[in-house]
Amino acid sequence: MAQQEDVFKKIVSHCKEYGFVFPSSEIYDGLGAVYDYGQNGVELKNNIKQYWWQSMVLLHENIVGIDAAIFMHPTTWKASGHVDAFNDPLIDNRDSKKRYRADVLIEDQLAKYDEKIQKEVEKARKRFGEAFDEEQFRTTNARVLEHQQKRDALHERFSKALNDNNLEELRQIILDEGIVCPISGTRNWTEVRQFNLMFKTEVGSTADGASTIYLRPETAQGIFVNYLNVQKTGRMKLPFGIAQIGKAFRNEIVARQFIFRMREFEQMEMQFFVKPGTELDWFQKWKQTRMAWHQALGFGAENYRFHDHDKLAHYANAATDIEFHMPFGFKEVEGIHSRTNFDLSQHAKYSGKKIEYFDPETNESYTPFVIETSIGVDRMFLSVMCHSYCEEQLPNGESRVVLKLPAALAPVKLAVFPLTKKDGLPEKAQEIIKDLRFHFNCKYEEKDQIGKRYRRMDAIGCPYCVTVDQQTMEDNTVTLRDRDTMEQHRVNIADLRSIIEDKVSITSLLKKIDK
After folding, report:
1. Where does 129-217 have alpha helices with state H?
2. Are the C-beta atoms of residues 466 and 414 closer than 8 Å to each other?
3. Residue pair 410/461 in contact by the 8 Å Cβ criterion
4. Angstrom distance (rounded) from CA 351 to CA 366
5. What is the distance between the alpha carbons of residues 450 and 453, in angstroms, rounded to a whole number?
6. Which ranges constitute the DSSP H helices of 142-278?
7. Can you list the domains of the chain with their CATH numbers?
8. CA 402, CA 457: separation in Å to the nearest integer?
9. How far is 272 from 343, CA to CA, in rounded Å?
10. Is 25 helix (H, G, I), strand (E, B) or coil?
11. C-alpha 245: how far from its chain's center?
12. CB–CB of 432/466 below 8 Å?
């Protein structure tokens, strides 16, 4: 675990050193849990967003996009339940004066039981070798069964406390499990209290005449309040979806793990409107569709899993998360929820407007049900960085840090180097870039020896480098180097685009999921 934490620290510092992510307003010592994306980070982030957007809007005829405002009428948040129920259960340690989310402390404890079981399994695997039967071991080994029993008992108790919103019981679980503060090491805990996560501000010119509004804590409500506008103007027939990418804001008290949990973040959400009674079929379909989107990046199926919710929101009839294996454990990157007709019904009730769908096939009007897919751009960015970061020992005894980013997401697709700064080589290199820059992001580098330039490009995840040398001036060929294999071969300048473009385009990813 400590080793994984070290890797995570390296990733955070790599993000800063190579222009991916900076602490916000760092010259003023930064602002807690707020980050800025640098010159390489913004390219990677935009590519992630483009991959998501095109997979939704290009590949589905019945999904369209919108871009709703961040500010909304305050009654929106009353209708959605956020004013009354958008809370985190928080607990303080009296000795360290640090505040924690009670549910996260208990989830970490559940993960510890899982780790203990896994350790026993790995020990046995080493002991028995090829003859090892993991399933049999898990169901018969006394120590594994003891850990599993404790985990299951805790899980059941935790789920009940969450569903009953029983804050005293959450505290009691923390005490009974002997959970200590990671900083003070003591169990000197306060009561658990609820804390609303919405940021308030005022709109209006005078203090007396100003009204309180909120920074939106999610982008979904902008879709729901525009349901009728889109459905009517687009003459949309059920089932259909509305997609949106936008900023959301949560006053996270316990923001942590770099860009994993921030106060200002970006969401990619799609609300899919369906006929009541078909929602659970669509829920299953969207689970598979979204998992395929993630796995097309090539990070390995073993690094993803579905995690069904212990506590369903009062309006949901099914909910699951897609979790990715980060250096600090399996963590949620995307949520898929069957939200029933709660949102549209609530907005109809609070606005006094009729929000229904007239079904021409059955000649009836009804409120559609909704399947939501919601993914955090920043969490997705972090999962991509965590999986791609690699420290390699090379055969010549040197080492390199390389970001093995999926080529379609890489900030720079091609770097072009003149071998020297004379004999017309820089001009030839610029000529190549001038031709290819219309098709993908290219970078020119002439500083330092060629090996150092390769290392710099490896560190930002650039999949291809081209070197222009004396032979180029004679036969119009260049050396093309592959980031991952480091293999080099000579190709004609005229062939560069056709060799590279298909591999680095978002289209190459979309084709993997649209089979």
Report:
1. 134-140, 142-163, 167-176
2. yes
3. yes
4. 17
5. 5
6. 142-163, 167-176, 220-224, 227-233
7. 1-71+220-393 (3.30.930.10), 87-196 (3.30.40.230), 399-513 (3.40.50.800)
8. 8
9. 12
10. coil
11. 13
12. yes
> How many CB atoms are located within 10 Å of the residue 228 CB?
17
Q: What distance in Å separates the CA atoms of residue 435 and residue 159, rounded to the nearest whole number? A: 59
Q: Of 56, 47, 111, which is closest to residue 384 (Cα–Cα)?
A: 47
The helix/strand/coil state of 261 is coil
**Terminal C-alpha separation, the chain:** 39
Q: Which of 82, 88, 163 is nearest to 343 (CA)?
A: 82
Count helices and strands in the chain by DSSP H and E runs: 18, 23
pTM: 0.83
Beta carbons within 10 angstroms of residue 31's beta carbon: 13
Exposed / middle / buried, residue 289 (Cβ in 10 Å: 0-12, 13-18, 19+): middle
DSSP string, 346-387: HHHHHH-----EEETTTTEEEPPEEEEEEEEHHHHHHHHHHH
Tell me the DSSP string of 317-341: SEEEEEEEEETTEEEEEEEEEEEET
Consecutive 10-residue averages of pLDDT for the chain (515 residues): 73 93 91 90 97 96 96 91 81 91 90 90 86 87 91 91 86 94 93 86 70 91 96 95 96 75 93 95 95 94 89 80 90 93 95 94 94 96 94 86 95 91 87 91 88 92 93 90 92 91 92 82
Provide the residue type at 219 as one letter.
T
Residue 153: burial class (beta carbons within 10 Å; 0-12, 13-18, 19+): exposed
Q: Maximum Cα–Cα distance for the chain, whole Å?
A: 80
438, amino acid identity: F
Which of 435, 402, 422, 511 shows the shortest CA–CA distance to 473? 422
User: Which residues sit opposite 480 in a β-bridge?
Assistant: 466, 489
* Contact partners, residue 287, CB within 8 Å, separation at least 6: 306, 320, 336
Residue 328 CB contacts under 8 Å (≥ 6 apart), including other chains: 4, 5, 8, 257
How far apart, in whole angstroms, are the C-alpha atoms of residue 7 and residue 2? Answer: 9
